[in-house]
Amino acid sequence: LLMGATVFTFSIILAVFLIGLGIGSSVGSYAARYMGRPARGLAWCQVGLVATIPLAAFMINREIPFWEINPVFFGDILLRYQHDLLRGLIAMLPATVLWGASFPLALAAASHDADAPDRVVGDTYAANTLGAIVGAMVFGMVLLPWLGTHGSQQYLTLLAGLAAFFMFAMDSSGY
């Protein structure tokens, strides 16, 4: 809503999200190769999400709407969309980088020396896809209408915190 309801806005949001996932996946796959305990790295990604999800909400609600826009931007579509891209990057990039890093770290945490790599990748990818589908449906059809945007963001932050807690607990127990 901050950038207007246009196909260009959707494209900017999608591009920022995909850029964040790509950067995060690259960093996460590099870290997974050299990290002795990738489950701990995955847990730290969730801790980072506990901070970056509220940061995104803060930026979207309290900071970005009050940025002054140079009136020249309204006359030059390229300048306006560059400004919108910057706002999208600031609001969404930190969390999407962490989400992107989570998948390769989850793959590394799920794999064991005796496991067949194809099975581990398939199972992890299936769980990720199922979680994305169910999560989108539950948030879009249940939590947003019931709790609103603010409550849903709080719930998402709580889920990330609980995931981090359980991953740290399982990593410490040697599971």
Short overview:
The chain contains five helices and no strands.
Layout of helices and strands:
Elements: H1 7-34, H2 38-63, H3 72-75, H4 77-110, H5 117-173
Helix pairs in contact: 1-4, 2-4, 2-5, 4-5
Question: Any overview of this molecule?
Answer:
- By secondary structure, this protein is mostly helical.
- Helices cover 85% and strands 0% of the residues.
- It contains 5 helices and no strands.
- The chain is elongated.
- The model has no long low-confidence stretch (mean pLDDT 89).
Report the helical percentage: over 70%
Span between N and C termini?
44 Å
The count of DSSP E runs of length 2 or more, i.e. the number of strands, is 0
Helix count, DSSP H or I runs of 4 or more residues: 5
Shape: elongated
Alpha-beta content class: mainly alpha
Give the ordered list of helices and strands. HHHHH
Rg over C-alpha atoms, rounded to the nearest angstrom: 18 Å
Overall mean pLDDT stands at: 89
- How much of the residues is beta strand, in percent? under 5%
> Largest sheet, described in full?
none
Q: Return residue spans where pLDDT drops below 50 for at least 5 consecutive residues.
A: none
